[in-house]
Amino acid sequence: MIKITFPDGNVKEYDKGVTALEIAQSISHRLAEEVLAASVNGQTVDLARPIDEDAELKLYKWDDAEGKHAFWHSSSHLMAEAIEALYPGTKFGIGPAIENGFYYDIDLGDDRHLTDVDLPKIEQKMMELARSKETYKRSEVSKDEALRYFAQKGDEYKVELITDLEDGTISFYNQGNFTDLCRGPHLPDTTQIKAIKLLSIAGAYWRGDEKRKQLTRVYGITFPKQKMLDDYLKMLEEAKLRDHRKLGRELELFMFSQNVGQGLPMWLPKGAKLRERLENFLKKVQKEYGYEQVLTPHIGQKELYVTSGHYEKYGKDSFRPIKTPQEGEEFMLKPMNCPHHCEMYKFKPRSYKDLPVRYAEFGTVYRYEQSGELHGLTRVRGFTQDDAHIFCRPDQLKEEFIKVIEIIFRIFNALDFKDFIAQVSLRDPENKDKYIGSDENWEKAEAAIIEAAAQKGLNTVVELGEAAFYGPKLDFMVRDAIGRKWQLGTIQVDYNLPERFELDYTGSDNQKHRPVMIHRAPFGSMERFVAVLLEHTAGKFPLWLTPDQVVVMPISEKFNDYAKKVVDYLNNCDIRTLIDDRNEKIGKKIRDNELKRIPYLLIVGEKEEESQSVSVRKQGEGDKGAMPMEEFAGLIQDEVNRQMSSL
RNA sequence: GCCACUUUAGCUCAGCGGUAGAGCAGCUCACUCGUAAUGAGCAGGUCGUGGGUUCAAAUCCCAUGAGUGGCUCCA
Asked: CA spacing 20 to 30 A to A508: which of A206, A294, A419, A483?
């Protein structure tokens, strides 16, 4: 007999060799149906794996990440089996579970390829196989055996994977006619997989290396219930309604033009207003924190980027230098603002008493992103960073870092952004040569970031080896409507540029010292930020941000003049107002989406004209009755002030 | 850049070898009408662009621009 300890501390005795599934069955029939994987002494294993010694046991169901993982990983094998059955001779790369579903990288051979129309066929085959209750059987094999199996099968990808593995750690899983190299764990059998949807096909380089062969990646998702799949697909549909590209067009915020060029967004009047408001807000906050606004040109001499090192690193993949009539003279569109700001730092000798110097600029930069990577406003070729560079003494680093975190908090709070991930990127301790700067400085900077984040109560994820070569950083990521992660705010410590531009200051010891530089952009870029803001708010902005807060609608064209008078009055009070001239005609109903997003609608007609008043409707609150114009102006100003003061 | 798909009216899409279609938006008229849908009528497109095949191309083929989902990349 062995003792099994459950998470609640209960201990029960079972026969040696009992499986987690049998234990679940002994507890309840229902549990046995729902359980997907188990953890034995902290190791996630198959339910069918015999347990031979006393153990702590945890059973994973759908709601546990481990349960979903086993489910989707098993689904991935099922898909591979279906593909092998339909397309014999297919070679398989890797097929893991991912955040939402799974994929498998496959190689169908040179003359075959998969398209969307093939997906239902594969789905059907998968359903067929799933219903036949195939069991997932684990077997441990020697490296030789494993290599022989896949060499004989002709699958060079698996052979390559096995070659890198250590003998004695290799296991196979088999279900039906399909055997795969896999660590597991898997479901006991395929019957729990009840709903299947293959979502898309994409190319993916073998082992993520663009020099190697591109395999076909098939993405899919499965569920234990059809309803769960229906709900998931519905959720994806709803997310599409919040897509910033759709909202941007509907709200007339921004546009792209084939004639202007790929990835070059243009801000329409309303979008420009929105952006202006965001910029003013940030300027106000930054002013409180001692930043000074600067302005720099959009181009700089090529030599500037040779000095900064960016030319060497990115020059060939960038917009080409601009030539002038002057032989040998070349300018580049600026891909970042730092070199310009460094030159400004060098404008005059700096004393330790002058530091920190904080230069802020809404700097428009141009980067030649790969065409396939462009995406709406989140990945573009010309964009405006809410950039600033802080030049400070090493001993000021932590304090400056804290202040930047505070600014980011102010912004995220003001816009009600709660769902973000803060990632601290440190250098790879195994590979210190990759980075510039002394050990001492790196240690100081990394400690400063970690301490600053902790001091501000920020929950961070620490990633080793993710630091830039010039310094560690703290990034803020948010998810878009369909759950993709985008980096917004970033704070980066830089030892490289002060060195390259030979920046210095005179210390109290009358010696020259190198300042440390912090790059920071709380929004990241105006474009990406607006995109994410749109998706988070579904276009319903707070009042202080709304490009047109008030729409005045005359009930018939008889009252157009009065409506214009109302608009003039409100505009004079600095209330952004729009007349809905599409509704001049009698009987016309408002059916424009846009009106749903405007906080206030004023309806004016005969009664209102007589009493110099407006009939007020507030979004979400309905009819507020008629009131004199002055009163309405006061009301809306109060509301905006209240919102602004809480920022 | 790579893989796959898409590209037809302002928007959403149908048509897939035989003279360009719908709904919504727009315009005109009628309705004293009130926050996602009044009615009738009108107007909107060399079917992304350039070649080719064919008696005939939106439709088939090639090239190219742009978009989408991924991969790679991301200062």
From this structure: A294
Residue A258 annotated as catalytic:
no
Residue A472's identity, in one-letter code, is P
Q: Is A549 helix (H, G, I), strand (E, B) or coil?
A: coil
Strands A460-464, A420-426: pairing is: parallel
Do A90 and A180 contact (CB within 8 A), yes or no?
no
Task: For residue A525, count CB atoms less than 10 angstroms from its CB and return exposed for 0-12, middle for 13-18, buried for 19 or more.
Answer: buried
**b/e per residue, A65-94, with b = 16+ CB within 10 A?**
ebbbbbbbbbbbbbbbbbbbbebeebbbbb
CA torsion sign for A479, A485, A486, A491 is positive
Interhelix angle A560-572/A629-645, rounded to 10 degrees, is 40
Integer distance in angstroms from CA A116 to C1' B68? 14
CA distance A24 to A4: 12
Asked if A60 contacts A157 with a C-beta cutoff of 8 angstroms, the reply is no
Instruction: Tell me which residue of A254, A468, A489 sits closest to A380, measured CA to CA.
Output: A254
Name beta bridge partners: A363: A385
Task: Please state whether A51 falls in left (phi above 0), alpha (psi between -120 and 50) or beta.
Answer: beta
Copy the structure tokens of residue A115. 């398209």
- Asked if residue A108 lies in contact with residue A87, where contact means CB atoms within 8 angstroms, the answer is yes
**Whole-number Å distance, CA A44 to C1' B73?**
34
Q: Which residue has the tokens 């007339």?
A: A252
User: In sequence order, which residues have a C-beta less than 8 Å from that of residue A302 and are 6 or more positions away?
Assistant: A311, A321, A330, A331, A332
Given the structure tokens 């684990």, which residue do they identify? A138
Q: Catalytic residue at A392?
A: no
Smallest CA–C1' distance to B1, residue: A370
Q: Count the neighbouring beta carbons within 10 Å of the beta carbon of residue A292.
A: 12
CB-contacted nucleotides of strand B (7 Å): 1-5, 11-12, 24-27, 30-38, 65-75
Task: Compute the distance between CA of residue A499 and CA of residue A513 in angstroms, rounded to an integer.
Answer: 11
Question: Tokens for A207?
Answer: 């082992």
Measured between alpha carbons, how far is A595 from A600 in angstroms, rounded to an integer? Answer: 9
**ipTM for the whole complex:** 0.88
In tens, the pLDDT along A216-259 reads: 999 999 999 999 988 888 888 888 888 999 989 888 899 999 88
Q: Which of A191, A102, A180, A166 minimizes the C-alpha distance to A137? A: A180
Find the nucleotide nearest A601 (Cα to C1′).
B35
Distance A259 CA to B51 C1' (A): 22
| Alpha carbon A200 to its chain's center | 20
Check if A519 is active-site: yes
The whole-model pTM stands at 0.87
Give residue-wise pLDDT tens across range A200-228. Answer: 888 899 888 888 888 899 999 999 999 99
Q: How far is the CA of A587 from the C1' of B33 (A)?
A: 4
